[in-house]
Please model this.
Amino acid sequence: MEQDEMKKILTLVRDGALSPEDAMLRFREAPYTDLGFAMIDNHRQLRQGFAEVIYGAGKTGEQILVISQRMLDDGVKTILITRMSADKAEYVRTHIKMRTAGGDSFRYEEIPRIAIVGSMPGAGGRGTVVVASGGTSDLPVSEEAALTAEAMGSRVVRLVDVGVSGLHRLLSHMDEIMSASVIIAVAGMEGALASVIAGLADCPVIAVPTSVGYGANFGGLSALLSMLNSCASGVSVVNIDNGFGAGYQAAMINREK
Model:
């Protein structure tokens, strides 16, 4: 149940068109929808400002379709599906029934493996979310972060391939760095990008270690430890390859209050 629907119910009670008892029944029915194989959290939008996100890995195309269709039918305007394979995306694209002929759509981005069902919100928030990736190999994770923040209504600026092995590339974007409300730094190898950016910026920095790197990178563990041990202030760290978590946190920081 979205905030607009709650306001409509409360208005009906105020105007005498709906009894308090019937309103309470609607609210009690709203918290979740039990599909048997999944329980959709209908109050996520109210609590966090964005509907429940579907994690595509481990789910069948049919399961993703049923969940997406139910959320769409219940009035969710933007549905985000992460870690979704191309074949599952094609299945959902083929079978999902949109609410309107115009406006609603199904969009799939193969590099970050993200699908967006419905309409994208307009860019808003307090300012800009900057997503900086250390190298092109980090793009699957950085794009997951960028698209998540955009789906949640943030304006996003992407800085691609600005790793510390060529520091001048990053320094050429000082205007974007200094004007950001929050920055996501995505890097593998030794993970130094987050510390460098946090030493330059005046806003929160969310560090995302990636599994990109040679053997001693240990699948992203070395980058994770480097970011956790950053001497720069204002750095928070999410899990290895968790672009979604970083994008979600950045959008919440950037949200207008």
The chain has three domains: 1-30, 33-118, 124-254. The first strand starts at residue 32 and ends at 34.
